[in-house]
Amino acid sequence: MKRGGHPGGPEASPVRKIAPDELDELTPPRPLLRRPCGKKGCRGTARPGGRYCRPCATEAVRRWRDRHATAIAERERARQFSEDQQLIRNARAYVAEYLKRGKLWKDPCEICGKRDVLAAWDDPGKPQAVRWLCSEHYAERREAKRDVQEARVAIAGEWAEVRRQLLLLPTEVQREVHEAALRGPAGQGVRPESVFYWWTLRRELNRYADRVNSGGFWG
Ligand SMILES: [Zn+2]
Ligand SMILES: [Zn+2]
């Protein structure tokens, strides 16, 4: 028998090979040994990957925060917020204060009527115009706002492409297309850089491309 070999040969190894499609059904490994909480006198079990049991860990974080309260407050003050974030923060503070003073009440979710609600604003610059939504409808609304934002970015990208194409053309064609775009889709005149301007510009660029492709533009 070979050294290190198993009595029944290599096939009888007690470690069974796992088929790849079995992997999904396996439960995650559990720590075999119970590690006691690192806090003196506590008889709890340490959290996986941590030194303390959950209550002791929470307590340790709280004490750490208390000890470093000044530094934490300092850092919070120094944090930079975008204008939008700052508006939202101000609106939240405003609403929190008014709730505390009893001058404002939470309404049920305006969509489903659940009582557990979050504050939302169409215009955070008007904090008194608060809307109340449950967490589900709050998340839904945020999702919708993100879609609108993405659409805006996509349109901006499209206009950037139109601008790039415009700049590839001879100067006199650029001027001609620009002037046609300024007359607008119905000839009523539009503001430069407005959506109508870019929309008409794209149409004029396409017309120009058609003329060039059909050989009719430069004769
Ligand atoms: Zn503990
Ligand atoms: Zn709701």
End-to-end C-alpha gap: 93 Å
Portion of residues within helices: 40-55%
SS-based class: mainly alpha
Small molecules in complex? zinc ion
User: Spatial order of the strands in the main sheet?
Assistant: 1-2
| Distinct helical segment count | 6
Sum up the structure in keywords.
219 residues; mainly alpha; two-stranded antiparallel sheet; 6 helices; 49% helix; elongated; binds zinc ion
Describe the structure in your own words.
This protein has 219 residues and is mainly alpha-helical. The chain has a domain at 143-211. Helices cover 49% and strands 5% of the residues. It has six helices and two strands. It has helices spanning 54-67, 69-78, 83-100, 135-167, 171-183, 195-213, and strands at 117-121, 130-134. It has a two-stranded antiparallel ribbon with strand order 1-2. Helix 4 packs across helix 6 (195-213) and helix 5 crosses helix 6. The longest helix has 33 residues, at 135-167. The model is unreliable at 4-10 (pLDDT under 50). One zinc ion binds next to helix 1. The site of one zinc ion has 8 residues, from helix 1.
